[in-house]
Amino acid sequence: MDFDRHGLLTKLGFAALTCNSGLAIYRSRGDPGTVAFVAGAYGSIALLFHFLRSFERAGPAADRGRTKAAVWALTTLLTAMFAARVAPLMPTAVGFLVWLMAAATAGGGFWAMFLNP
Q1: DSSP track, 30-89
Q2: Transmembrane ranges (predicted)?
Q3: Residue 73 and residue 82: Cα distance in Å, rounded?
Q4: How far is CA 28 from CA 31, 64, 83, 89, in A?
Q5: According to the model, what pLDDT value does residue 117 have?
Q6: Residue 28: closest CA among 109, 85, 80, 84
Q7: For each of the chain's 117 residues, which pLDDT tens digit applies?
Q8: Distance CA 61, CA 106 (A)
Q9: pTM reported for the whole predicted model
Q10: Quick one: which of 35, 86, 95, 111 could link to 90 by a disulfide (CB 3.0–4.6 Å)?
């Protein structure tokens, strides 16, 4: 049985993400910073799904530059958001490594999407 033929797995995954984000916002309703983080991450992931889907649907001859830029910007935003939440919880040296790895990930993504021939 082909579950992904009509996007069933994508819809189930997005429903699970929506439910999990809603529960996280409900549990952290007294902390506006956490609520903003969860809402921002959810919105970024939703936009990322949208742009990835439009990237897949575009033909090989289509200009994909703007979509690539949006995908890279959203993934970099998510990487920075999560690094900003994790790094302060770590010792200083490990927090520096978290930010270093986030920067390397963003730089590697830029190289892979725009500079790699």
Answers
A1: T-HHHHHHHHHHHHHHHHHHHHHHHHHHS-TTS--HHHHHHHHHHHHHHHHHHHHHHGGG
A2: 34-52, 72-90, 96-115
A3: 14
A4: 5, 38, 20, 18
A5: 62
A6: 85
A7: 455 556 788 889 889 999 999 999 999 989 999 999 999 999 999 999 888 888 888 777 667 788 889 999 999 999 999 999 999 999 999 999 999 999 999 999 999 988 886
A8: 26
A9: 0.84
A10: 95
Amino acid, res. 117: P
Angle in degrees, 0-180, between the axes of helices 8-27 and 32-57, rounded to the nearest 10: 170
Q: How far apart are CA 90 and CA 88, in angstroms?
A: 5
Residue type, 32: P
One-letter amino acid of 38? V
Centroid of chain to Cα 1 = 29
